[in-house]
Amino acid sequence: MKGPVHLNALRAFEASARHQSFSSAAAELNVTPAAVGQLVRSLEEWLGTPLFHRGTSGRSRLIPTETAERALPDIRAGFDRLSLGLDRLREGSRNGVLTVTVSPSFAGKWLMPRIERFHEMWPETDVRLDTNLKLVDFSAQGIDIGVRYGRGSWPGLVAEKLMDEQVYVVCSPAWLAKNGKLRTPTDLAGKALIHDLSVDTRLGFASWSDWLKRAGVENVDARRGMRINNSAAVLQAVVDGHGVALARSVLARDDLTAGRLVQLFPKVKWTSELAYYIVYRGECASLPKLVAFREWLFQEAASASAP
Known about the structure:
By secondary structure, the protein is α/β, with parallel strands linked by helices. The protein folds into 3 domains: 3-91, Orthogonal Bundle (Arc Repressor Mutant, subunit A), CATH 1.10.10; 96-164 and 274-305, D-Maltodextrin-Binding Protein, domain 2 (3-Layer(aba) Sandwich); 167-264, 3-Layer(aba) Sandwich (D-Maltodextrin-Binding Protein, domain 2), CATH 3.40.190.10. It has 11 helices and 12 strands. α8 links the parallel β8 (193-196) and β9. α2 crosses α3 (33-47). The longest helix has 26 residues, at 66-91. The protein starts with a helix and ends with a helix. One of its GO terms (biological process) is DNA-templated transcription. Keywords: DNA-binding, Transcription, Transcription regulation. GO terms for molecular function: DNA-binding transcription factor activity; sequence-specific DNA binding. InterPro entries: LysR-type_TF_proteobact-type, LysR_HTH_N, LysR_subst-bd, WH-like_DNA-bd_sf, WH_DNA-bd_sf. This is Glycine cleavage system transcriptional activator.
């Protein structure tokens, strides 16, 4: 039995054992049931031993023999290793898929409005976005690179600062026209505050209580108002005129530039303790498609930060 035929026969055997059916195995392998049966029989002839129990009256499922059952775990592990090896070969090229993990808000407010420029520069690389607020296991979930918001330390990952962030108060032009000019932070008394719950304040994320304290305001109740666990949704609620919010500069920049948002009290300065970091596994640092995307992120961040 030659190498490729041998491999095809092993695949047919493994799929048949897993499905306990030649027909189901054939559907998975995109061949006919007869072809699967023939491959399995050729493997049995080469081995000189049956791999499935046959001839039992009324049996509708393929039942592997004891010898086959013992061999299946190693065969499956071998196919897993082959798939991993093929992935490693693909990693050496800019062709194929680059899997990027970011938060939903960062994807919607910063990355997606810019991603077409990456596609124009590297048309051979397809980007797959994994949008998740929770931390993900890069190795287990096949993540190549990501952008995370925090203090810059994540076990097992290289972290390079991409952008710092300022925090400031925003509202919509229509809301401002309706509520009158707010000259000082004390004018926020009685106004609808919108709270961003997407990042834990224990990590250093600015809350309304923190901001009001820094601004020296005591007459505003920071406990009241709408609470939203998505920064992009917070900004949309402000654009729609539901109140005022503490905006994250990286996410709010495009809305401010377009006039959908107005910054209030610019004299109150706050640079967040948290920042955006590019993160990836150290052993993948030299992969061409990762290098290309990393360099592009730095270029876009520099452009976005320019006056």
